[in-house]
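To: structure subgroup
Subject: Chain for Friday's discussion

All,

I'm putting the inputs and outputs inline so they're searchable in the archive.
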Amino acid sequence: MNQSKANISAEVVASASLQNQKPGVWIGHVFMETGKIDATLEFLKLIGMRSLGRFGEMAILELRGGTHLVLKSVQESVTAEASFDLMVEDLEAQRQELIEHNYQPSEIQKGRIHSAFEVTEPGGNKIRFNNSHVVGIV
């Protein structure tokens, strides 16, 4: 094992003692623009976000841990990478579900810390999905 991986592993093991404690802070709000708010909203619900409501040209969704994704409708097309990535419990199952709903996720790439794939949601944002390495209660 190289030194970098050993350091990461040691940090994860050290933090394992905190498994029964929730972290004291979390991300409150993340923002994303879309030119197709209805289709993007349905996509985000499909992948597991909870819709909290649609408010005109804005929608709010909730992720695990209470983070809110604020979705804003814009007139122009969006072709950008999302300013965030997502972690899921079962990366292969998430990818397969997207395929079954006619999305075209990339192949899963094995990384040093995460394995991941990307998919473009209906509004044009490319979103990266990572496997999880969460420790303890979140």
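Points worth raising on Friday:
The chain has a mean pLDDT of 87.
Helices lie at 3-15, 37-46, 91-100.

D.
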